[in-house]
Design a protein that fits this description.
seven-stranded mixed β-sheet; binds ligand AR6; 7 strands; alpha/beta
């Protein structure tokens, strides 16, 4: 039975089998966590991503981590929040499910997720955390550790309030 751990961290620093990137459909980089991952992984990541031909919303693609401590990067494209009636919850769940599927196919035992769609894409943080934690709960027995990587203490507090049983790490 794997653990779900809430940390406040820069995801590019985490030494896990796979980190997930909140990318856009071009997979050619951007701001936020996507920019941070590309900067830390190095130019080889962008060169590799250019060969992938993009990724539709809700789907995921896997690449090596290059200069990152993580072995793999799973790039997923979250939905842009448009008020909630454009299947945003379903598409957000698809991001987590499809990322877990790719990770298990590669034999990953540890994986870390940022709060997909909650930055530039405007998904309300609490609603997004509920979906994230629900899918993590469905998959935790196939991993040693799933990390919910928050970028602020207030985001970590929100996750913890929704999942009091989750571990809190650093
Ligand atoms: N480590 C962990 N979390 C981070 C980091 C980091 N280094 N940097 C930001 N976050 P966002 P989105 C958090 O905007 O909403 C990009 O330009 C951030 O605080 O990165 O899915 C892509 O190319 C927030 O909680 O992703 C797309 O165009 C979360 O990561 C678009 O943004 C997601 O914020 C995707 O937007």
């Amino acid at each position: 039975m794997g653990r779900i751990c809430i940390v406040t961290a820069d995801i590019t620093r985490l030494k896990v089998d796979a980190i997930v990137n909140a990318a856009n459909s071009t997979l050619l980089g951007g701001g936020g966590v996507d920019g941070a991952i590309h900067r830390a992984a190095g130019a080889e990541l962008l060169a590799y991503c250019r060969t992938l031909g993009g990724c539709p919303t809700g789907e995921s693609r896997i690449t090596p981590g290059f200069n990152l401590p993580a072995q793999w990067v799973i790039h997923t494209v979250g939905p842009v929040w448009q008020g909630g009636d454009q299947d945003e919850p379903g598409l957000l769940r698809d991001c987590y499910v499809n990322s877990f599927k790719l990770a298990t196919e590669q034999g990953c035992r540890t994986i870390a997720f940022p709060a997909i769609s909650t930055g530039v894409y405007g998904y309300p943080k609490r609603k997004a955390a509920i979906e994230a934690l629900s899918v993590m709960g469905d998959w935790h027995d196939r991993f040693d550790e799933i990390t919910a990587c928050c970028f602020s203490q207030s985001d970590a507090d929100l996750y913890h309030a929704l999942c009091p049983k989750c571990l809190v790490g650093d």
